[in-house]
Design brief:
Elements (H helix, E strand, L loop, with lengths): L1 H18 L10 H17 L9 H12 L16 H6 L1 H10 L11 H12 L39 H12 L18 H6 L1 H10 L13 H12 L8
Length: 242
């Protein structure tokens, strides 16, 4: 009887010890939970930051430097794409020609992902540097200034048209921004007589037939001036009268 009572008493004492959090009670690590919460908050602060998109300085200007010179260099009548403010005010035109029409850059094949990058940059606000540091220029709402019509040449004799007297001045006036000694093989140097003779078919196609040269936005020759170039080619492309 005493033995049974002793066993019962031992069982009761062990039960009371477990209820009070003895060494076999489950442990709760509150510090681990707190650490996990902090890590989640820290992760969310590091993702989705303000400077999440392309910028002119880091992404767009290097692309222009590689693909758009010398036509869009400093002093160009077509616009200097190395100047941020000029690019910002021309961003709609740039997106249209690079991303929508895809007819620029002239003579170069730009990968689709780079065209999309330009469009994305413009759609996200065309910022210059880091988002938090950029100062986006204010849009100018003034009406565009109409260009003066190209002057027609004075009366000329088709038989006396020469490269030196008539055609080279034409090229200097309308084509030399892109077609010069620095333009490279894709844009012939019309300031050299031999090149003009060699590429006469291209001149007839682009300047006379299609009339898509000079480029849109540049001063354009009059119909009489285009006729002058055409007559010069048809009459044998004389260099000068001796």
């Amino acid at each position: 009887m005493k033995k049974i009572f002793f066993i019962f008493l031992t069982f009761v004492m062990l039960s009371l010890s477990a209820c009070k959090g003895g060494k076999h009670a489950p442990q709760t690590d509150t510090s681990a939970q707190g650490s996990g919460s902090n890590n989640m908050q820290g992760g969310s602060q590091k993702t989705g930051g303000a400077n999440a998109g392309p910028t002119y300085v880091n992404d767009i200007k290097p692309l222009f430097e590689k693909n758009c010179l010398p036509c869009h260099d400093k002093g160009s009548a077509l616009g200097n794409w190395l100047d941020y403010k000029t690019v910002f005010f021309k961003k709609a035109l740039i997106k249209n020609r690079i991303f929508e029409k895809k007819d620029m850059p002239l003579g170069k094949s730009l990968p689709e992902n780079q065209r999309a990058l330009v469009a994305k940059w413009i759609d996200m606000g065309a910022v210059e540097g880091a988002f938090e540091e950029s100062e986006v220029p204010q849009e100018i709402s003034s009406e565009p200034v109409a260009e003066a019509p190209a002057e027609a040449p004075s009366d000329f004799n088709p038989e006396t048209l020469t490269y030196v007297k008539d055609i080279k001045p034409f090229f200097e006036k309308y084509c030399s921004t892109c077609h010069n000694e620095n333009s490279g093989p894709v844009m012939p140097n019309w300031l050299l007589y031999d090149i003009a003779v060699l590429k006469k078919d291209a001149l007839l196609d682009r300047v006379i037939a299609k009339k898509n040269m000079p480029l849109e936005g540049m001063p354009a020759p009059s119909p009489e001036e285009r006729d002058m170039l055409n007559l010069w080619i048809q009459k044998g492309m004389k260099y000068e009268i001796k």
